Request: fold
Amino acid sequence: MKRDLQIMISVGFTAVLAITGAVILFKEPKTYSENENRYLQAEAAPTWNTIFDSSWQEKITEYMSDQMPMRDAWTALQSKMQQCIGKKEVAGVFIGKNDYYFEKITEADLSHRRLLANVQAVEALIAAMPQSELYFLPAPTAGNICADNLPAFAPYYAEDTRINLAFQVLKMHDCHNVDVRGALEDHYAVGEQLYYRTDHHWNTDGAFVAYQVYAQAAGLTPIAKESLNLQVVSESFRGTLDSKVLDSSGPTDIVTVPFSLPDVKVTADGENISVLEMGKLLNKDQYQVFFGGNYGQVTIETGAETGRSLLIFKDSYANCFVPFLLTHYDTITMIDLRYNDGSWTELIHTAPDDVLVLYEMSNFCKDMNLSTLPVALEQ
Reply:
């Protein structure tokens, strides 16, 4: 009787695996996960080369994981079970105090060599554009500024040490270091929320604090916050960190945007867009309300008649920061090296007045594209 039960369980388990595998392999593959904000592995067909070099095994494993039926539901169930047993880390996210989620970034996740290579890339920009003033603004993470909300004893990388090292090296090359940590800490200390709780970005308030520090460093007169007509456009934002935790009962965020912006012409990779793409509020990633997301090159013609131009090398932290600069520059060009085809090199001949490198610090430490700058600049 016991043996028969074991056989039935084994057969049932095998049948479930076989049916699940068949469903995964023969159903139309899903190419994009809006919840995870990434493209999925949607190709699993082997070739002679991939079979013999074993890369197909990795590909099919990723395909089976990405195409798992009810993937989001299983992930959410696993997350809920982990939280029920008291775990403060779920899928690489720390579940912090006061409804804060934090991306888990440890010393093991970062390379000192990569950091130095990216600092050298900024040095190369300085050397290649001697007529421009170069500003380096490393955006601190929420895990640094809001560290009191991290779970007790949560391991987190030494961000201040890396920022200070980058500042020390770049200062020797006449770079203007824009240190926004003190201002953010002061505003956070009096109760301002400067980062989304469920997303890895700073929010509009945090970006405005950083803008004020940059404006002072660049000799600009900061605009008054009251003049921006800031309005809440969503109270249901669930960001990139929520997409990993997938807790339907978890916190949501408020999205605020400035409505009193000047009329400008914005071109993104050859297409006309707006500074605020309100239709993106219907998407999972509501942070895309700023410029509609990320592009290789965004050019903004403001008509401000200030006689100044700005070139920005950036990640997505700049998207909610740049709207505050529209009255200060005649043209603003944003370059995201992750999506740019290399055409940005033509811009060094335009001799912009100011060049700003704005990256979230952990991303600056890990980015693989910045190190291509020196080679591109030599061509």
Remarks:
- The chain has a mean pLDDT of 86.
